[in-house]
Amino acid sequence: VLNPRIRESLEVLEEMEKKGTLDMNKVYHARFYQECKRQLAVEEAFRYTGLIKSPTLSTYNMLLSVCCNARDTNAGAFGAFAALKRAGFKPDCMIYTTLISTCSKALKTDLVFQARNPAQVYREMESVGVEANLLTYGAIIDGCARTGELAKAFGIYRIMLSKKIKPDRVIFNSLINACGRSGAVKRAFEVFTELKSESLINPNHVTMCSLIDACSKAGDGDSAYEVYTMMRKRGIGGCPEPYTAAVHACSSSGNLERAFSIYDDMKKDGVKADEIFFSALIDVAGHAGKINCAFDVLQEVEKYSLVPGPVIFSSLMGVCSNVRNWEKAIFLYENIQAVGIRPSVSTLNALMTALCRGKQFQNALQSLEELKEAGVSPNQLTYSILLEACEKENEAGIALNLYTHAIADGIVPNLAMCDNIIGMLLADALEICIEPMLCTKVFVWKASRAPLDLRSLLPRLSWALACFRQTLSGGAQPTLPVLSRLLACLRIPESSERADTGLVFQTSSPNKHLVEGFGVYDPRASALYEEASSIGVVPAFKCDGEPIVFEADGLPIYTAEVSSHFILRLLLNARLHNRCVCLRY
Question: Record keywords: Nucleotide-binding included (predicted)?
Answer without folding.
Answer: no
